[in-house]
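Protein modeling request. Please complete all fields; requests missing the sequence field cannot be processed.
Requester role: graduate student
Desired output: 3D structure, token encoding
Chains: 1
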Amino acid sequence: MYFVGNLATTFIRRDYEILKKHFDVDVVKLPKTKFEWIKYPSLVKKKIKKSDVVFGWFAGWHTAPAVHYAKRYGKKSVVVAGGYDVVFLPEINYGAFTNLKEKIPAKYVLKNADLIISVSKSNQKELLEKVKPRKNILIYNGVPLNKFPPSGFDKENLAITVGGIKHSNLKRKGIETFVKSAKYLPDVHFAVIGKFIDDAIDYLKAIAPPNVEFTGFVSDEELVEWYQRAKVYVQVSAHEGFGITVAESMLCGCIPVVTKRFALPEVVGDCGFYVPYGDEKATAEAIRKALYAPNELGKKARERIKKMFSMERRERELVKTIRFLEVGVEEDKQHEKS
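Delivered output (338 residues):
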């Protein structure tokens, strides 16, 4: 199997670790420089010739050569449509379908891959509004249960959100709304957890009241500790294809405060509080209610993720899907010989 994806991204790395337990998996480092992009198609071509199945994350320029050569050499291609690649959200200038440069490769991959895997019903709906894939199935993202244990349910008066600090995330991830909502709850500790990617942090610090903390980058272990401490997790996003950090926080017993947009209601269900997008006052009020909510709601949130979005479930469904494709590859080889 040839795996195409950025292994520095946690949820992509989790799929890679699943697949390498069951298959012989090869990876090529994704290109960054112009010179690497020039060499990239030929490297992909060599890998495809030696593989039976291609598995990629996100439809884009990095997966387009893999899908092209898989089709050319009679190999099977699977691509996970993770979110951005099926989105058209011009009001915040987000999504591959908002600009021609990203739309061209995304559309090619989504139409030509043998199988497109959607990670939520919302994500699937967005896909089918854009293209008619050859085949599409839904396999929810998963979260490793053992890595996100609750540390009891005696939580702190703490509300957190997680996301890279950059201008494009201020609206999309609702980070700006989260920071602005803090002024209505001066006795509550707010924390924005994530790497400072550009100078957006300067703007956030300028508008933040004294009760907001900006952590910068934290390790995976430190992130779990934040989840375990916080009573409330806030994700008041304009768009989420799934909501991995919401699910992780819920496993640690956090009560979520989210918007009713795209995939977030699928993850949260009736285990949290909903607010209109961009409404800082409503966000503050929902955070206040979540802080005073009984601990049973946090326990209920954890049970929902365990039941619906375990890594074990995703592993079973992914491996079953790839095995089925491998059978198809062998049958094609037999037909060629005969």
